[in-house]
Write a structure and sequence with these properties.
four-stranded antiparallel beta sheet; single chain; about 240 residues; Alpha-Beta Plaits; Structural Genomics Hypothetical 15.5 Kd Protein In mrcA-pckA Intergenic Region, Chain A; 6 helices; binds uracil; alpha+beta; elongated; nine-stranded mixed beta sheet; 3 domains
Length: about 240
């Protein structure tokens, strides 16, 4: 169920603000009844008619995308930079689930299913996000312990689920770090707070989804089985 104005805007009929105006003006019928209350909840089983036009149910779409470096995770960018949506040609209104920084690469889910997007990003659902970070200078066990004690980010204690040093050379370490939240710049802030710079960051796993077979800049549809598995992961951990 979602709020009527959101449902209308997500169908692509008009913006949410315009939808609110139409509702207040009594132009929107839900199951043949005029609805003027903004908070009214509807779902795909309700028949919504605006000024005589029946909203079509929007087919749900789910993609897994391997985001390249130098691309913004928004639907539009006022600085005219390339966005992740430039990789999608579709009539429906898709949007990214969570965000990866401009210089971060790797897995990003793109969908038009708001409920699914909420499920994937809510920290209580514990959907794991695994990153490979190249950090500077070299990390040692003591730094891993510091990270595992938790780092205060914007007033919240963020504790990674797992941290593992994969390798080191004379300048950098490659670290695998798993989190289940999605705060802005979470990984970079965690490393910064213990004195490390993230020079490269890639998200290599979301729940059960991996980068396997997906080269940079490419996308693939999620399989119904994969969507079910993600919901199962969320429910199991509630
Ligand atoms: N954490 C970050 O710092 N950046 C990302 O892009 C994703 C997680």
């Amino acid at each position: 169920m979602e709020r009527l104005q959101k449902y209308i805007s997500e169908s692509g009929y008009c913006s949410r603000r315009k939808a609110e105006e139409l509702i207040k003006k009594g132009k929107v019928l839900v199951n043949n009844k005029i609805i003027t209350e903004l908070g009214t909840k509807v779902d795909g089983n309700d028949v919504v008619i605006i000024d005589g036009y029946k909203l079509e149910k929007q087919d749900k779409e789910y993609y897994l995308f391997n985001k390249p470096r130098g691309v913004v995770t928004t639907t539009s960018d006022d600085k005219k930079r390339k966005t992740v949506m430039d990789y999608f040609e579709t009539e429906t209104r898709l949007y990214p689930v969570g965000r990866l920084d401009y210089d971060t690469t790797g897995l990003l889910i793109i969908t038009n299913d708001g409920e699914f997007a909420n499920m994937m990003t809510h920290p209580k659902n514990n959907i794991e996000k695994v990153y490979i970070a190249k950090v500077k200078p070299i990390m040692k066990g003591e730094h891993v312990r510091l990270l595992k004690q938790g780092i205060n980010i914007d007033g919240d204690l963020c504790i990674p689920d797992r941290v593992k040093i994969k390798s080191s050379d004379d300048k950098n370490s490659i670290v695998e770090i798993t989190i289940h939240e999605g705060k802005n710049h979470e990984i970079k802030k965690m490393f910064e707070s213990i004195g490390f710079d993230v020079v490269k960051l890639t998200r290599v796993r979301i729940g059960l989804l991996t980068l396997e077979g997906l080269i940079s800049g490419k996308k693939r549809k999620l399989k119904p089985k994969e969507i079910k598995q993600l919901y199962a992961l969320a429910n199991k951990k509630e």
